[in-house]
Protein: GB1/RHD3-type G domain-containing protein
Organism: Mesorhabditis belari
Amino acid sequence: MDTKRSQNGHKKTSTRFHFAPMKENELKPLVTFKNHRIQFNEIIARETFANEKFSDKKITLVSVMGPSRSGKSFLMSILTGGRQGNTVRGAFKTGYERCTEGILVFTQPMISEDVSET
């Protein structure tokens, strides 16, 4: 955890995150919409955030909601370390067609090196 002082003397802390070093991190559909029905994929849930190998970890889910084509996937790519130098990678593209639909989760969690209790 990095601790710095702001201009007014208050302590500012930040926590560093990294992806668990298992296999390549990819997005999988946790919730899909078919025939005007919501479908929850329990297998994906068990493989990701509900996986027993993470049972001793504190889990925090981060989500982004907004209108179609407003940059939600781009924001999540930035938040999850999707930058490599000046290049941003992730599930987004230009154009008028939607790129993502439903609720997607990463196959590997972001592990906190230090957790601030403040």
